[in-house]
Every structure is written in structure tokens, then in C-alpha cells.
Write a structure and sequence with these properties.
The chain has about 300 residues and is of the alpha+beta class. It folds into two domains: about 140 residues, Arc Repressor Mutant, subunit A (Orthogonal Bundle), CATH 1.10.10; about 160 residues, Gcn5-related N-acetyltransferase (GNAT) (Aminopeptidase). It has ten helices and ten strands. Strand 5 and strand 6 form a beta hairpin.
Length: about 300
């Protein structure tokens, strides 16, 4: 559910953001004269606070691009502040921890932040301090309430297909510039699925967050031993909630239950986030070729996963 917002409310939020970012020094290249950027400090804080944190989880918790987070982690590793070790339960993942130098550096930074905030608060009377803290607590509580979203993955139902086609067309036109040929391709995929749907061996799913469409995925029978993953989509506003991972896991669980040996898919070099998700789940690229498709020059790719 969404609610109307007035222009005055928008301007009030923008004014608060301008004042807050200026007073906190968030826009400074090096936050609090620490020698670190604010994103670097956030990464250090998350690693210090979680003893078994993986890079993918780090990006998700910060709602930041995984590639950007990986570059920050690489920088912190070179400075001797962060190290990584293989996850004993998933050898494709690395667990991040602070080194002894990282722990001492973080302790100094934490002390510096506390001093800086104390100096800022001391400029206000105790009454104003209390009022400010109460206002901050209210903002925090309301935002956390908004973030506590209820998500579910459900089978596709009557009326979903038209919306799925539209969202594919709108998003891919905006993010990649793909035009009418892509719209036709998506329509053909969905039309074929509906016309030839075999409920015993095929299924489509829609992800919802608080009742709002958040994404979709399909498992289509390729042959008796192989299923094809198709039409994975995650709405941008929900991409930091792990919806893509949930959809792929739902699809793979279904394929295992139907005793498929292999799951295959098509993707291309432009779909960097999707390719990272496929790789994370064990898919391996089996073929690639250059072609002109959807009005763009693409490197098309076939990927495959052998199911245990």
C-alpha cells in the first residue's frame, strides 16, 4: 500500500537531508578526518559487528552494489584491515573478518566517532538534546517499520502474464535500451509457456513484497532430463532484499523435486547482476557468442547447472 505525499513534505525531507549531511560531514571525501570514506567506514562497521559475514551478505545489508562493495573490501584487504577465509559450508563464498590491525583501527575510529557526536550534542541544552534524540528514535522506528517488509514467492496465476511482460519491457528499455524486438521476445516466451504449460513439470512464480509485484521466474521443460530457467526479473526497489536469490532457489528446488538432471539458461554480458546470481548458485557458462540482438551488440551466453 502507498500513500499520497505533499510537495511540502518532500521539501521538508530534502531540507533535513541537506542540514544533516552538512553537519555530520557526510559529504566530505574523508569522513570525520578519519582517512576513510563513509562507505569504507560502513563496511568496517558491518565486518566488525558480524563474525561470519560474506561479501554478498554485506552488499545486501548495506543495499549497495556488490561490485562496489567488493572493491571496497579489496582496498581494505590491501591496507591490512580485513581478511577473508573460505566458508567451510560453501567453498564458493568467503567469510570476512577484521585483522588485528583492523580491530585496533576500528576501535580508534569508534572512539573518535563518539567524541565527535558528544561535541555536537554539547552545543545543545539537555532539553534540546532529549527532543533531538526522541525525533531521531521516531525516524529510526518508522524507517525500520517500513523496511520490515513481508515477502512471499507464489505460483503464477491468472492475470500475471500481462504485468510480467510490461515490467520486462519497461525495465529493460530503461536500463539497457532494448526495444520492440525484446518486447516481442518476452511475449513469445510467456505465450509459449501458457500455450504449452505442463503443470507436472513446469511452473512460474511471482515474488510479492507487502502485496506488491517484486519479481518473477519460470522453470520450463526442455526435455525429460533438462529444465530451462526463464524470465528472471527483480524490481529495482526490491533488489536489496534478496528477492533474486529467493526466486532462483524456488526454481531450483522445484527442478530437483521433478528429478531434472540439469537446469540451463540464456543470459548475456550486459546482465551483470543476474550473472552474479547464477554464478553464486553454481551455474557455469558453457558457450558464448557475439550477436546483434534487441538493438544492441551483445555477447550471448548459455549457462548450465547439474543438479545433485
Amino acid at each position: 500500500m502507498t500513500f499520497g505525499v505533499t510537495l511540502k513534505a518532500i521539501n521538508n525531507v530534502r531540507e533535513f537531508n541537506r542540514v544533516y549531511t552538512r553537519e555530520m560531514g557526510i559529504l566530505n571525501e574523508r569522513f570525520l578526518d578519519s582517512g576513510f570514506t563513509l562507505p569504507e567506514l560502513r563496511v568496517l562497521f558491518e565486518v566488525a559487528s558480524n563474525r561470519s559475514l560474506m561479501t554478498s551478505q554485506l552488499a545486501q545489508s548495506l543495499c549497495m552494489d556488490q561490485g562496489y562493495v567488493s572493491r571496497i573490501v579489496t582496498t581494505l584487504k590491501k591496507e591490512g584491515l580485513v581478511t577473508s577465509q573460505q566458508n567451510p559450508t560453501d567453498k564458493r563464498q568467503k567469510i570476512l573478518t577484521l585483522t588485528s590491525l583492523g580491530e585496533s583501527t576500528y576501535a580508534e575510529l569508534e572512539a573518535s566517532v563518539q567524541v565527535d557526536i558528544r561535541n555536537q550534542l554539547e552545543e545543545f541544552t539537555p532539553e534540546d538534546q532529549q527532543q533531538m534524540i526522541e525525533a531521531m528514535n521516531t525516524i529510526t522506528r518508522l524507517i525500520k517499520k517500513s523496511d520490515n517488509k513481508n515477502s512471499l514467492i507464489r505460483p503464477i496465476r491468472l492475470g500475471d502474464s500481462g504485468h510480467i511482460i510490461k515490467r520486462h519491457v519497461d525495465l529493460y528499455a530503461r536500463e539497457y535500451g532494448w526495444g520492440q524486438s525484446f518486447e516481442l521476445a518476452v511475449m513469445e516466451v510467456l505465450t509459449s509457456f501458457l500455450k504449452n504449460f505442463d503443470p507436472q513439470y513446469e511452473q512460474g512464480w511471482v515474488a510479492e513484497v507487502d502485496g506488491e509485484f517484486a519479481g518473477c521466474i519460470f522453470a520450463v521443460k526442455e526435455n525429460d532430463s533438462t529444465a530451462r530457467l526463464r524470465a528472471l526479473l527483480v524490481e529495482p526497489k526490491f533488489r536489496c532484499l534478496g528477492i533474486g536469490t529467493q526466486l532462483i532457489e524456488q526454481c531450483l528446488d522445484f527442478c530437483r523435486s521433478k528429478q531434472y538432471d540439469t537446469v540451463v539458461l540464456w543470459t548475456c554480458d550486459a546482465l551483470t547482476q543476474a550473472r552474479k546470481l547464477y554464478s553464486k548458485h553454481g551455474f557455469i557458462r558453457t558457450r558464448q557468442w557475439s550477436e546483434k540482438e534487441f538493438g544492441s551488440s551483445l555477447v550471448s551466453e548459455d549457462w548450465a547447472l547439474d543438479l545433485p
